[in-house]
């Protein structure tokens, strides 16, 4: 047993981080907030980097890697707040032409919601009655449908959990950075224990979620995946809230990125598998 | 990321399982949990059985008499012994999990030869004399003094919360060998000594815990003579040695118990199904989310152990991350048990009740949650020290 990232996995993850730093930096993020749209050029760049085709065999034109590697890439996407129906397109890579290369943007009806309906080239599921709602998350346009929640593919649940993990890790980092820089009462606010302990709890939540998500990606076990989603949802939401608190008044502004993490974490918590579904699945396993 | 065990590791597991299935029926009946002499006898008997089978000090280095097992093998050992319902280290806790490893890392060859074999054989047990009435979380504020007199240190002061002091043979003792002054900050001037518990001048006064037991005690030291040869590390260098001790205590001490919690959770689910509480969705989902919790904590353990395996053995501050979450999760488990079992959780003759009471110590002992948060924030996240 060696439950640590292998060298190639580390390289894959940092490669993705570099790609996103180059192609989706903070300016791009804020531009997307003002005008949410799928950036087709970026989408194709992701396709080229293997983001969608990662789990297809080389014979199918894919990269031949597995769920653990996909989870690492989705963690990076979550960290960068990359918008778009990433999970649905990744899942469609085998059956929808062009999805694997990032030419075709695919979304999917997920219970009562469907994200990015107007921007997608293809919708999986019945979206006939879909009506747009004013989405809480400026980076995720949403439609409501008359559908009800069904059992989502395990991979979708896991990759969403991985995005939540990335977001939790990022807000922890943002909070710590701020706590080291911002001074009050003549010292960095991070020297105050009340702030310090918020940050420590953020790290603990993130690391517990990380262990859960990575292990579930390795085993592919549906119960473990449900546990990973439950813990990663919680980590993403609560870390974003605590990050907002650590930022003080600045945290409540549109200008700070914290709200974008929180809103997306809330959206993802409703996607693919709810907390109730996850908890029921985990209870059934007892 | 690899969660499968190698053939070698699986062979080790299989051998251990076979041995456990034969060894456990030979154990004497479990003593009353409140009877410490009885528990000492029981725990050391078990230790002797482990020793005879070659399983003692699995994770200790070979020079120290251990098996030099990999962290993963140690993990398998903890997993399998818990799963089989084998006794917990109990009275051997301090000797095996931190005093021993500290002596192995910091002691002289003579010290290792003197103290380590009896720990491994279960002949001698240790207690930990760190905390004092006015120095708990602020451990370095300790005041128990040791003055050099010829070949001895003469120790005067008192210790508190010393677990199983009543039945211990040795104590890992922190003393002040240099008074705090402008030129000596409190972390300097501390020395780590091995004190025989039968030395004249030692009085042990048991303290009653909230569970009604006397598992810890106050220890009064009145001019107790401890040979200078019993000093581990240099004089006044005890704080550094203590950090080694604490990294062992916090790094590995609770690992095996996660497995026990998963078993307890399964028993609780069975109880809920039997008494109808399972039909309550809130209770059921609470049990489900505890399932996620303990599974994740087990995975985090494997993560930390793998990291230690790559990093050379001494557990890192990852132990604090684990301890923080685990100690609270364990308390939540018993709160949920109370919801499931109702009035049965008020009956002191039920294991649940006593375990629920004992779980209250997990957020305090071995460094409170607040202290663990300071460690995580300062040593992992690099936040400034402050007040
Ligand atoms: C069951 C049990 C067994 C034990 N066994 C042993 C043993 O064998 N040997 C031994 O030496 N000790 C032992 N201890 C002692 C244990 O290590 C101490 O109780 C613990 O470190 C806390 O110290 P204290 O009791 O003095 O509490 P205090 O330090 O007085 O703490 C009181 C409260 O203040 C908080 N606090 C203190 N300092 C800070 C700070 N800097 N920031 C934020 N909050 C703070 C604490 O979190 C706590 O909530 C045992 C304790 C228990 C409960």
UniProtKB/TrEMBL annotation, chain A:
Residues 159-265 form the Acyl-CoA dehydrogenase/oxidase C-terminal domain. It comes from the Bacteria. Signal peptide: none annotated. Gene3D superfamilies: Acyl-CoA dehydrogenase/oxidase, N-terminal domain, Butyryl-CoA Dehydrogenase, subunit A, domain 3. GO terms for molecular function: acyl-CoA dehydrogenase activity; flavin adenine dinucleotide binding. Its cofactor is FAD. Residues 7-84 form the Acyl-CoA dehydrogenase/oxidase N-terminal domain. This is Acyl-CoA dehydrogenase FadE34. It comes from Streptomyces hundungensis. The lineage of its organism: Bacteria, Bacillati, Actinomycetota, Actinomycetes, Kitasatosporales.
From TrEMBL, chain B:
Keywords: FAD, Flavoprotein, Oxidoreductase. One of its GO terms (cellular component) is plasma membrane. Belongs to the acyl-CoA dehydrogenase family. Its EC number is 1.3.99.-. Pfam families: Acyl-CoA_dh_1, Acyl-CoA_dh_M, Acyl-CoA_dh_N. InterPro entries: Acyl-CoA_Oxase/DH_mid-dom (IPR006091), Acyl-CoA_Oxase/DH_mid-dom_sf (IPR046373), AcylCo_DH-like_C (IPR036250), AcylCo_DH/oxidase_C (IPR009075), AcylCoA_DH/ox_N (IPR013786), AcylCoA_DH/ox_N_sf (IPR037069), AcylCoA_DH/oxidase_NM_dom_sf (IPR009100), Mycobact_Acyl-CoA_DH (IPR052161). One of its GO terms (molecular function) is flavin adenine dinucleotide binding. Residues 6-123 form the Acyl-CoA dehydrogenase/oxidase N-terminal domain. Gene3D superfamilies: Acyl-CoA dehydrogenase/oxidase, N-terminal domain (1.10.540.10), Butyryl-CoA Dehydrogenase, subunit A, domain 2 (2.40.110.10), Butyryl-CoA Dehydrogenase, subunit A, domain 3 (1.20.140.10). SUPFAM superfamilies: Acyl-CoA dehydrogenase C-terminal domain-like (SSF47203), Acyl-CoA dehydrogenase NM domain-like (SSF56645). Its cofactor is FAD. Residues 127-223 form the Acyl-CoA oxidase/dehydrogenase middle domain. This is Acyl-CoA dehydrogenase FadE17. Residues 236-381 form the Acyl-CoA dehydrogenase/oxidase C-terminal domain.
């Amino acid at each position: 047993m060696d439950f640590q990232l292998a060298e190639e996995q580390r390289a894959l993850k940092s490669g993705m981080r570099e790609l996103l730093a180059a192609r989706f930096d903070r300016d791009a993020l804020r531009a997307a907030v003002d005008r949410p749209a799928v950036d087709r050029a970026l989408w194709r760049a992701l396709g080229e980097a293997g983001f969608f085709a990662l789990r297809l065999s080389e014979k199918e034109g894919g990269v031949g890697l597995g769920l653990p590697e996909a989870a690492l890439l989705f963690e990076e996407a979550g960290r960068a707040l990359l918008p778009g129906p990433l999970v649905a397109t990744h899942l469609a890579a085998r059956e929808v032409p062009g999805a694997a290369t990032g030419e075709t943007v695919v979304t999917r009806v997920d219970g009562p919601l469907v994200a990015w309906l107007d921007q997608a080239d293809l919708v999986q599921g019945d979206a006939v009655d879909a009506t747009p709602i004013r989405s809480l998350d400026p980076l995720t346009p949403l439609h409501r449908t008359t559908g009800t929640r069904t059992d989502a593919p395990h991979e979708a649940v896991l990759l969403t959990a991985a995005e939540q993990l990335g977001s939790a890790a990022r807000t922890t980092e943002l909070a710590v950075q701020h706590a080291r820089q911002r001074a009050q009462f003549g010292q960095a606010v991070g020297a105050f224990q009340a702030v310090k302990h918020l940050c420590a709890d953020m790290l603990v939540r993130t690391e517990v979620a990380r262990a859960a998500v990575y292990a579930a990606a390795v085993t592919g076990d549906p119960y473990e995946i449900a546990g990973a989603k439950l813990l990663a949802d919680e980590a993403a939401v609560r870390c974003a809230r605590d990050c907002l608190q650590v930022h003080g008044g600045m945290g409540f502004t549109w200008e700070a990125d914290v709200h974008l993490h929180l809103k997306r974490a809330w959206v993802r918590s409703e996607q693919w598998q709810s907390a109730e579904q996850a908890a029921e699945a985990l209870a059934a396993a007892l | 990321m690899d969660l499968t065990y190698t053939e070698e590791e699986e062979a080790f597991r299989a051998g251990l399982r076979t041995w456990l299935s034969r060894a456990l029926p030979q154990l004497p009946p479990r003593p009353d949990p409140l009877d410490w002499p009885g528990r000492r006898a029981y725990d050391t008997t078990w230790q002797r059985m482990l020793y005879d089978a070659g399983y003692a000090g699995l994770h200790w280095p070979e020079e120290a008499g251990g098996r030099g097992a990999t962290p993963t093998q140690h993990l398998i050992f903890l997993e399998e012994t818990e799963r089989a319902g084998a006794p917990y280290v109990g009275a051997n806790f301090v000797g095996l999990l931190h005093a021993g490893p500290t002596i192995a890392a910091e002691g002289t060859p003579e010290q290792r030869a003197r103290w380590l074999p009896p720990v491994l054989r279960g002949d001698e047990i240790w207690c930990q004399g760190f905390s004092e009435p006015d120095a708990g979380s602020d451990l370095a504020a300790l005041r128990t003094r040791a003055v050099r007199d010829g070949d001895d240190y003469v120790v005067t002061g008192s210790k508190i919360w010393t677990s199983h002091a009543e039945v211990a043979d040795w104590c890992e003792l922190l003393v002040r060998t240099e008074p705090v002054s402008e030129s000596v900050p409190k972390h300097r001037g501390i020395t780590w000594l091995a004190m025989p518990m039968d030395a004249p001048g030692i009085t042990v006064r048991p303290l009653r815990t909230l569970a009604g037991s006397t598992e810890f005690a106050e220890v009064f030291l009145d001019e107790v003579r401890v040979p200078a040869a019993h000093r581990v590390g240099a004089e006044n260098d005890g704080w550094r040695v203590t950090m080694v001790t604490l990294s062992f205590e916090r790094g590995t001490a609770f690992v095996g118990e996660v497995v026990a919690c998963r078993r307890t959770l399964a028993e609780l689910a069975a109880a809920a199904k039997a008494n109808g509480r399972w039909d309550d969705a809130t209770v059921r989902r609470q049990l489900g989310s505890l399932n996620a919790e303990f599974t994740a904590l087990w995975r985090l353990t494997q993560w930390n152990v793998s990291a230690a395996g790559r990093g050379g053995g001494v557990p890192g501050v990852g132990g604090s991350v684990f301890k923080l979450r685990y100690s609270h999760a364990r308390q939540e488990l018993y709160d949920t048990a109370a919801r499931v079992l109702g009035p049965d959780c008020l009956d002191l003759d039920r294991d649940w009740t006593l375990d629920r009471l004992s779980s209250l110590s997990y957020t305090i002992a071995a460094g409170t949650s607040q202290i663990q948060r300071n460690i995580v924030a300062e040593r992992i996240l690099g936040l400034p020290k402050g007040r």
